[in-house]
Amino acid sequence: VKVNLHDAEAFCDWLTKEERQSGKIAMDVTYRLPTDHEWSCAAGIGSKEDPAAKPSEKSGKIEGYSWGTAWPPPEGAGNYYGEEAAKVPYGQPAQAPIKGYRDDFPRTAPVGSFKPNELGLFDLGGNVQEWCVADFGNRFGTANLGVLRGESWWRKYDGKDYAVSSQRIGHPKNALYDFNGFRVVLELPVSGNTALTPAPPAPATDDVTKRLAEIDAQFQTAYDRDVAPGHTAAVLDLDTKYLAAVQRELDAATKAGRLNESNALRAEVKRITDKEPLPAADDPKLPGSLLKLRATYRSTLAKFEEARDEKSKAYHSRRDALLAEYHAELTRLGHSIDAQRVSALREERARRFTVPRTASQSPPAPDVPPISDAWANLPRPDGKPAKKTPRVKVFILMGGNMQGFPLVTGSKDTTLEYAVKKEKLYPFLYDESGNWTLRRDVRNVWATLDASSRTWVAKNEWLGVKNGADIGPEHGIGHPLGNAIEEPVMILKSCVGTNRSLGWDLLPPGSESFEFTQKDEITGESVTWVHAAYKGTPARWIKGTTPQPIDWHAGKQYDRDTNGAKTVLAKPGEYYPGTSRYEVEGFFWWQGEPDTQSAAYSSRYETNLVQLIKQLRKDFDAPKAKFVIATPGGIANGSTGNSGLVLDAMLAVDGGSGKYPEFKGNVATVYTNPLAKGGIGYNGSAKTYMDIGLAMGEAMVRLLENGKQ
Asked: Is 4 helix (H, G, I), strand (E, B) or coil?
């Protein structure tokens, strides 16, 4: 659970490779996610639906639940949002529980806790919503949504309507929630029609596999002929020159009697001759001569790789065009499952290859100093309180990514415990005895929402790691600030969820309505939409029609998050003992992925971000407060489309870009892609949240120091 669509697909790819290599499955057997229609068949309603129809067209059209037709669910029907779940606070807005229904699980339940359906499948209703391979279409003004099936333990909407087996939820494909999960399909090679209900005769699976292999072979042949040889030759020449340069430095160091430098350079020669890869980050204790050589090697190699990728652009585009033609052919013949397979393959290939833009097309990304160089030597906190003063300096953290969720303890390489004990990172987080350190000069406060959408202070403690908990970027942010500031410091996180867009949920006051024309995913016609201003509802409506209000308005999450922060600041002494006043010194903003799912929102991201900076300073009476922005880790410099627009907007507002003179010296953007493990979603990597937090904290320290000067 708590995985996005891309993570689920990546797991299927990994499992397929693992079990093929171990001999558990044959080489022509594949694990994948179910299609939308396959899920319906598993739920027993596939024969009542049109396999070729879009998920949005079929959503909620067939009545009946996984247990039958009665409401509420009978005892033991599954893991739903019963009265037991409502008693456990959860940081998302939710309606009342299902009256009169209880199960034993306030959150997720182990598979097999309830009876299976007639096919022997568990939890096709309740527990978690499940990702399918399908495109939902437009929903709430957002296109290119994934499809989730089955109700979950958390009842965000009207459970009676959303629990029907035919209901589909259109959801951003990068969304992470602990009520979303997935099940896998083991696809076996069979002949003839692979659909689960009657459909036009389909090509044999072997024929589809053969056609896809032919397309791949065309691409690989051309790539190996025209692109790979030049790149390989350039890299071999670079390796030869690098080895010669290291050897020259080794001879000079040996001759001069510099023993430590000689040993390091000798080890580098051995690494090269043994064909071991260059490490991702350098030990700052390495001699300067070696650090300089490695930096030159990396920058030169990066140029070669950029040239290779640019040259291969035409070949990737040609392969995608052939796949698009084959997809259209299968769709025309009514072979929907094979068409879905080709569509999924195109999406996967598109994610793996992004052609860089030229320098003139995209602002340069700020340099991110290697973590080991910049912050490995942060001092351990001494446990002493801050300088005694009635005023606490407050730094407000906002944006969905601030919530965080990586685990502290555990043996997985994504946990903080693994990073500290196995990789020896972040020595300032633990003392000489191996216990977690505690800062008594930095307060860690998190204001979020309970199940009734009321402000709930989930954390009010001194900054320190706790076993069994999870973490966000606040630990990385708080340590640099605590070291740089003598006065009391409060890290005040006020956010909820990861699927909140700046263009709708977090739209700041003062934002105006705008029009945007785009092609409707269902009808194919161009439509001009009017998008809501702050406080407006719904998110959008067709120009010339009357908007129909819904139970949400533009900026509602902004209102909730700012009100949550103000609830804490109304009583500073309760949250930082010994203080009675506060001053907002800075804001941190880490968000952006949800806006990439909408062409309209991504086109307005820069306008909205500028307004956000100004409005937050106004709302908290902090006109001189510094502002640090972190880019989404999964968006690389040079990205195109919606992602490129969001990244460009963030880079443009950096005070050093020159585009907004009023932001010079007080707004900084941290480019996080080199620090992100696993792209969007970050695979639950504690290192990603620590490293990005540290980068943001250091950026804020630099802004504060510049302000003093």
From this structure: coil
